[in-house]
Design brief:
Layout: H1 25-32, H2 36-39, H3 44-54, H4 72-89, H5 100-113, H6 118-129, H7 135-151, H8 159-171, H9 178-194, H10 203-210, E1 216-222, E2 226-232, H11 238-248, H12 254-257, E3 260-266, E4 271-275, H13 281-285, E5 291-297, H14 309-324, H15 334-350, H16 361-366, H17 378-391, H18 397-408, E6 417-421, E7 423-424, E8 433-437, E9 441-446, E10 452-457, E11 461-467, E12 477-483, E13 488-494, H19 498-515
Parallel strand pairs: 1-5
Antiparallel strand pairs: 1-2, 3-4, 3-5, 6-8, 7-13, 8-9, 9-10, 11-12, 12-13
GO cellular component, one term: cytoskeleton
Family: Belongs to the TRAFAC class myosin-kinesin ATPase superfamily. Myosin family.
Domain MyTH4: 57-210
Amino acid sequence: QSSAPSLTSEPDSIMLVPAGDHYTMMDFATAYFRGAQFVQGLKGVAADKSVADLVQHTKVPIQESLLHYSDSELNELAIKNFKTVMRFMGDQPKLKNQTEVECIYEILQLCKEKESLHDEVYCQVIKQVTHNPHHESALHGWLLLHLLTGYFLPSNILMPYATKFLQLAGTDPSSNHHDTAKICQSNLRKNFLYGGRRHLPFPVEMEALLKGRGARRLVVLLPGDIEYLTRIQTFTVAKELLQEICEQMGAGEQEEIQDFVLFATRSNNKMVRPIRSEEYLQDYLLEDKLVTISLRRLLWRTPLHFENRVYTDVHYGQVLWDYLNGRILLSHSKEMETQVGVLAMLQHWAKTQQQSSAPSREELKEYTPKTLEASISPQALQTQVGMLLGAQQPLPPLEAKIQFIEHVMKLPFFGYNAYFVKRVSDATILAPCFFGVNKEEIIVVDRTAQVVSCVILLRELQKMRTLRPVSDHGLPGIELNYGSATSPRTMWLELSQAKEMYHTIVVILEKTELHH
């Protein structure tokens, strides 16, 4: 496949904010449009009018591509696409049974398959929204531009001209499309920084956009059973939503925001995956009602501060759930039994309605980590908690939550994300066992003795990949390549949470690199 010969040499950097009167679409058309050669013989006003005609709305389908293509197939596809653009915008009648959504898909699919036509499609849509006399047609054209800017980048040659066009449209007093032009500029900036969205929108999302509903309602689950209600746009990236939520709970410093991650969970197969900060949320949601988005603190690099009630409740909710459900590795010892008693008392005080009463046997069971239930005597625990309650005044719920968090943070394996691993290739490691991942290392912890049997520093991790199950009933796995160039080592492990662990390590590596 060949592209326009005049667009082959691309500069190393992209001018995203052109200044002055240069880089207008008329300048681009003069230099690169196929029709410009017929204008070159003209002078003055006649020449300007002819160039202006090349870059503004037409009622007549084009007979050849706007840009030069030596490949006749690309020329034909360009002509066909212009007709599809006109049908979508209402400037030409649609084909029998053809819908607006089908028109959009046809245009986006062409861009996905033929990168060399990105500039052509951009130029076609910009042409059709420029001086378009029909309001509804122009609205459809701008919607198309909104999608194009979020999915596909123009070449480095066209980029400054397209950006200048959007800047002018965003400030033109005679235009009704200021807001959309500004959104398109934002889309282009994100697309340049992070790449475009991976998946084309589902029909449900497309139909909502056509009805003018660009925002989608989203409930984000925060730890502690807190629901955060928000609205996301077609091209909202995870870092934007993270910033919004963190600011709402009083954690607005960039350094601390970096410690939080959004997770996507698919309810039908329990697949959990951290969302990287530069990924588009809609790529995870699509039209699937089975996916929920939740927030977790993944790293604990910045000191905690408890001046905000929601911040305290979120941290308490996460630390409590992790403590009770085996996400924090706990060793059984006399010292740990004492800790379980203190933590049970603090959980009891954290409940507003339980300030004056002693916990029942059932409540104490709720306050005990699942991994320690079998090894701690309920009677002994009840006696211990009774003595603790008798020896001191109850704390207010908020203070009890803060003390609970501070107590748990002192536990030896706090800060590690724990995974239960069924099999390991290293014969010296007794499996099943636990793997823990924090900001610096991967540790292997013996299941019964709770001692560390192996440490892999993240900075020594050379390569990593997920492995498919070796049999129908087998588990997926991860292969870790680590060590130095002179002493390379490989380990594979099998666990049901292989993908979650793999992607969590990827996110931690990215965040710690950012942090430094």
